[in-house]
UniProtKB/TrEMBL annotation:
Manner of cofactor binding, per the entry note: Binds 1 heme b (iron(II)-protoporphyrin IX) group per subunit.
Domain Ferric oxidoreductase: 49-162
TM segment ranges: 12-31, 51-69, 81-99, 119-138, 150-168, 180-196
Keywords, comma-separated and alphabetical: Cell membrane, Electron transport, Flavoprotein, FMN, Heme, Iron, Membrane, Metal-binding, Transmembrane, Transmembrane helix, Transport
Membrane topology: Multi-pass membrane protein
Protein name: Protein-methionine-sulfoxide reductase heme-binding subunit MsrQ
Organism from which the protein derives: Rugamonas fusca
Any one GO molecular function term: FMN binding
Function: Part of the MsrPQ system that repairs oxidized periplasmic proteins containing methionine sulfoxide residues (Met-O), using respiratory chain electrons. Thus protects these proteins from oxidative-stress damage caused by reactive species of oxygen and chlorine generated by the host defense mechanisms. MsrPQ is essential for the maintenance of envelope integrity under bleach stress, rescuing a wide series of structurally unrelated periplasmic proteins from methionine oxidation.
Highest taxon of source: Bacteria
Co-factor requirement: heme b; FMN
Family classification: Belongs to the MsrQ family.
Amino acid sequence: MDFHPNPRQLGWIKGAIFALALVPFVRMVYLSVTGQLVEPLEFITRGTGDWTLYFLCITLAVTPLRKLSKWNWLIKLRRMLGLYVFFYAALHFTTFLWFDHFFDVQAMWKDVLKRPFITVGFAAFVLLVPLAVTSTNAMVRRLGGKRWQWLHRLVYVVAPLGILHFWWMKAGKHNFTQPIIFGVIVAVLLGVRLVWRQRQMRAQQACSCSMPTARTGSARG
Ligand code: HEM
């Protein structure tokens, strides 16, 4: 289906996604302040962790969806979705620092170093920081497109770390179903990029192989 929104429609789409992405957060706040949660700390820590992972998958899905549908405008949603990954990850980390350690940074460090699943989650969060900081147009200009692109490939490290964190956490409970599902989703989303990149390189190689012939041809001509 061919769909190319005009700037006004794109504005509405962006606004709707912005509002929808806030729904889980508003729901968590609402349920907490109205005292409807039996285990509020667990609910919020897990809810924010889940939504970090969902937005990570949604953000990684933008490029494959754009390529398959040829809806190039989808790329204009990627920055906002990526910032929502950071938003929920920051909330997730803050709940951990607050509810688990009452903002005692030293105790938090001990925990980060002691429990491997926390170490991995923390590493993923730390790697998300430069991505969020450099998400503005001014930073893209300052870094230059190539360097910015390289830096933003960190997301290919963040996603497997996020899965490993989830896997490790659930391993303690011998519950692997969800980590396997998300592991497969992330593997597919990263795998298609590899396949496309290889095809692109092969096409470039084929193109550069035919170049000398063309040059020879023109020299002769
Ligand atoms: C990109 C970064 C991260 C992602 C994608 C992520 C994702 C998740 C997910 C999906 C869960 C399980 C939720 C559920 O049970 O449904 C979880 C739990 C948890 N995460 Fe993270 N997380 C990240 C970073 C962090 C960081 C930085 C910390 C703390 C330093 C952390 C600490 C925890 C804790 C304490 C739990 C709950 C464990 C439990 O209830 O037993 N995570 N995370």
